[in-house]
Amino acid sequence: MTPEGVLHQTQQAAQALLHAGKELFAARGFDGATVKDIADRASVNVSLVSYYFGGKEGLYREVLESFGRKRLAISERLLATTSLSDGSTESHDNQQLRLRLFVEDFLECHLRDPEICTILQRDLETEHPDCMAVFMSTFMVSYRNLEEFIRAMQSRGMIREGADAEFLAFSIFSSLMNGIRLDALRLKLSGQTLTDPAFRKHFTDQLIEQFFKGCRPA
């Protein structure tokens, strides 16, 4: 096999383990997902879990970190405050668009990876140390990026002076997380679901509209 073929095979095995780990950690929890079961699900030798990730703990962290790093990179790009603090004149409409894109990406990515939501919601509540560490280094940084974005808009007079930026950031995050977590219940009660692009757009429209109405300068 050529070196390129070996590299491709290696990447495939690592990705298969990440995918299998994500599914089993979500379904059974960290303790319930055995290394053997993960390797069997990925159709690879069990020794590769240690070879690629240093063991089950390393695989678990990488499952969450690979998702968290992508979300962090997007939040840093969409919520960059440089244009609001360097004297430039970025319009209110453009700020609203950037926040909308952040919300849309958040919903779409979490809906594509429901297992990640399951792992986070369960393991943050039980304060799993690896989950907490990954959350603080990625997801929490994204939250702080949103908070700083709101503060920057506030400093430019786009949001009323007395508004609590941390509370507003938390309100957006909690609305998004609860919107995803309760989607199955919403479907039963109203027949509406965030997996429907039309309803997802309506959900986003309402969230953005209520945010800016609630903190509009007097």
| Class from helix and strand fractions | mainly alpha
Q: What can be said about the biggest beta sheet?
A: none
Distance between the termini: 69 Å
Question: Count of DSSP E strands?
Answer: 0
Q: Mind telling me the CATH superfamily name of the largest domain?
A: Tetracycline Repressor, domain 2
Examine the secondary-structure arrangement and name the CATH architecture of the largest domain: Orthogonal Bundle
List unreliable stretches of 5+ residues: 3-8
Count of spatially separate domains: 2
CATH class wording of the largest domain = Mainly Alpha
What do you see in this structure?
The chain folds into two domains: 54 residues, Homeodomain-like (Arc Repressor Mutant, subunit A), CATH 1.10.10.60; 153 residues, Tetracycline Repressor, domain 2. It is 80% helix and 0% strand. It has eleven helices and no strands. It starts with a helix and ends with a helix. The N terminus is likely disordered.
Please name the defining characteristics of this protein.
Tetracycline Repressor, domain 2, 218 residues, single chain, Arc Repressor Mutant, subunit A, 0% strand
Q: How do the helices and strands line up, and which of them pair or pack?
A:
Blueprint: H1 3-32, H2 35-42, H3 47-53, H4 56-78, H5 82-85, H6 92-112, H7 114-125, H8 129-155, H9 165-181, H10 183-190, H11 197-214
Brief digest:
This protein is an all-alpha fold and 218 residues long. The protein has helices at residues 3-32, 35-42, 47-53, 56-78, 82-85, 92-112, 114-125, 129-155, 165-181, 183-190, 197-214.
